[in-house]
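fyi for ur records
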Amino acid sequence: MSPLNTKSSGQHLKQKNAGGSSHITWETRASKPEKAARRNQRKKFSQDIQPGVAPQVTTSGRGNNDSGWEDFKAALNDSQTSWANSRPTQIGPQPTWGKSKPRSGNVRPCGNSDESQLGPIINDWDLTQTSYPQKTPEEIAQDEKKAKLQTEHWEMIQKLWGWPWKNAPPQLVILAPYLPNYYHRDPFSLPKAEQSSKLFSLLNVDIIRNTILGWILRDHFDGANFAISCRTAFFLLAGQITFWDMTDGWFNNCEYPRYGPESSDKPSQQGSVQSVLLITPVRHFKQAITKGTRGNSRLYSRQITHLRTMLRSLYNFADFIDTVQFHRTGFLTVDLLNLIIPHMRNLKVLGVYNCQLIHIGHTFRLLDIIKEDRPLGKEDQVYLDFFPMYHLGPRSGAHRTGSYGVIWDNWGGDTRLAIWAIVTRILPRASAQGINLTKQGTAFYRWLEMSPCWNVGETLDAIKDTSMDPVKLATMLNWPHYQGNVTYFKRKLPFRPEGWEWAVKYYTCSDCHEDLLGILYHFTQIRSQYGSLGGSNSPIYCLGCSLINTLEGETDHFKYSKRKIVSKWIREDDPDPNDGTNGAWEFPELNSTDLARALEDFERRDVAKDVRELDRARYCLKRTGRHSDRFDREFEERQRPRTRAEEGRHGNLLMAPEVGMYQEWREHLTMSKEELRWWGFDTRRYCGYV
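which gave:
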């Protein structure tokens, strides 16, 4: 038997390092009576301590004496001296800042510390004597200016919550795009600077000004950049635009008939419009519109009533408008645009920006609408500037799951590949009509940059290059994973057991009937149709069509109900009153040519009644039930909670990519190796969309 096993169970080994060498000693474990005696001793020691009185330390454990504390202090001072002598001596001038005087008073021993491990005694501590490096007056002024700017920026962001319906502060410079704050006498805090540029002298000529500013306003973001360059440019652009207010229902008297028995000679009923028309919600200070319970509870009724009046106004002055822009217009759909745009025979530019019911899938309809009923040789005279519906999600809280940009809730697919599947179909059609949607400065390019897509510029160039190899194109489309690396794409990857050959072949989508690369499909559909177990006649849908179908069925912000109300309004035939649905839950043939009849059908079919019911549903959800369940579905909409399957608990990660991931990845490229130790993701689940 080994000599290590000859000891009794009450003893154990203890290894110490002494002078760089290790040796083993035997120690006897304390028995239960000894442990109880030690507990009593510690209890008695804690009772002897009084505030302001140094504790009495016992050296033998059998009573208190005065020599114990003195012996302990002497040992502690000896260890201080040895520790100070062992420190390396620093040669040269010593900095005065950061040093502090030792603290005065006695030090209470704690634990069974070894004397060789004790540091110096701090006998005094005086924070008032600590000196720090002093900042120069210029640095102090710069810090104060930076803090002031951050405070002003945060206050501005807080005041802008709830655009465009709530609490418009009088400090705003504009109430809508290019519209100055006419409620405030002097919204500009800085003095006006005189512009000496020759450009503004040239813009004083009416013909030149109308031509140049008309070209600038073809793209909304180009016009916005020009407007913020200086105050003179801002007012020049504002003077070229006619504003129609969708909040208060002001259309510059254009809703009154111009000719016929119903026309009037009164000046208050004479309308006018410029060649550039901007239709947008406008901030107001009227409580009944922006904040009051009575007015806010009838929000949808006001929106659709003003929408009908706006369509009538456009119908009356359709021949005088060259450029029309729709900004955040409620209840506006592509079917309503299909009724009015063909009547505008002199239209040259159509702009649609972040309207709630017009998403990226409607780009094809918009391209068709601007070609309808155009004179021979002018089929492509209308330019399209389009910013599809965009969502950042609710504010941070328990009812937020992420910012998906294109869609409100998580839909379980790769949004980036779905967008590229749609873009590959849009670009050839837009190019054939002479429209460059992806030029830098256009609203569509800006939307792509704000979407979850990565490396937008290079990917668009790859899509436009018809001679590019399909393998290289696949690596560019799925940039978050392959980053254009063909060698890595052709490897055997553990999270891609299906291989890569299917991703570079072309398959026909059963919905759009376009031939698209396999990487723009769900692999499960490719496998069921063309795999080793294939042969089934089940249809396959590209990711773009899957995303469009999901967008059409969205229910947040009452989108589905709003679309059905508009569908009932402009349907071709009257709904059957005996079908039990009141004509609101079908997919009928819609009126696409006769706008005058559609305006009459609004009252004949009592569309306002359905909108009042929608207002009542919104109001009841906001006012009834538990307090935690009360929220406004228009301004305080909540996201659907994630399921366990979406979070990857059952296998693949079924989460749509969020906005800002590309910027985060670019920041990680600049990190050091030490910083990257704590960041990473599992690619097997990251790319596991099914």
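The chain has a mean pLDDT of 77. thats all i got for now
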